[in-house]
Structure formats: C-alpha cells, structure tokens
Amino acid sequence: MDAKKSVSSPECEVFDPEPQLPLPWYGLRVRTLGEPKLKKILSYKGHEVFLPTYVNVRRYTDRVKKVNEALFPGYLFCRLDAKHRLSILTTPGVESIVSVAGVPQSIAEQEIDSIRQVVDSGAPAIPWPYIQTGDRVRIEFGSLKGIEGLLTGVRGSERLILSIHLLQRSIAIEIDRSWVRPI
How far does the chain reach from its first CA to its final CA, in angstroms? Predict the structure, then answer.
C-alpha cells in the first residue's frame, strides 16, 4: 500500500514593499462662510478635513458676540488622491482645488502640522496678510516649541507669522520675543 504523503506548503506572508503613506494635503477653495458645513460634508464622504478656526469678537450695537471663524477664509484643507478628486469637486460649495497651471499642488505636511499645533495649543491666532520678507525664527520654548515662522512686531508686541505658501495666506500668533531664536 502506498501511503499518501501530505504536502503542506509553507504559509506565505504578503510583503508590502511600500507602506501606506497618508495622502497629501491639498487646499480647497470653498464658498466663504461655508467652510464648517463643507467640512462636515467632506468628512461624511470619508475624507480627512482640517479647518483651522479662531474666536472672533464681533461688536454689535446691542451686544458682543464671540464667533468661530476660519483662520483661512474661503479655504479648507483635505487629504486626497489628486487622481480621484471628482467626489470633492462635485460637492456643492467646493469651487476648486488650489492649483498651479491647472495642476493641483499639495501643501507641505510641516505647514499643516504647524497650523494644527497652534490651533491645538489654544494660543490666540488671527488671520494675517501674507508676508514674503522678514526674519525666519524658530520657537524654542513652551507648547509651540519647534514651530518656524516669520517674526514681526505689531503695536509693541511680537508676533510669529505662519504661512501656507501655496494659498499665499498667513496667520499671526502673539509670542514673547525671548521664546524665539533665528534660524
């Protein structure tokens, strides 16, 4: 009698040579004042969306009201695959993906991380005109340690300017000059 030999094959491990990297961030030009609503819609569609906000104090004749507003009015940040952008562009209120010569341009991860760190820290930040010249500095102390930006002075106080270069938009946060060192 022949005994049947059972041949067992070694278990194959699937090796993924390229780990899944997060999709890059892109700037979305959206309907101004529609940013919070679009953030919810795009999040519901499964996209990672970042909407940095600040508290703006509005003065009316009969009251003062604190309102959350976008730090970059008219823009949202979204992780997406630029090749599969139709679900974004067909969303009512999304005007376009920030592009150069018709080609969507991603935003540096470090720029988004810096803005996110400022928002998470609770440091008072406000929208600021984009500045191309000035001294680049790095914060060396406190919850904002490691952030790089431009140092400027406004009405006797020092501010650090953080920019999203592709959008040509910036925000300013009040800092103590002793926190920063030139780069």
Answer: 83
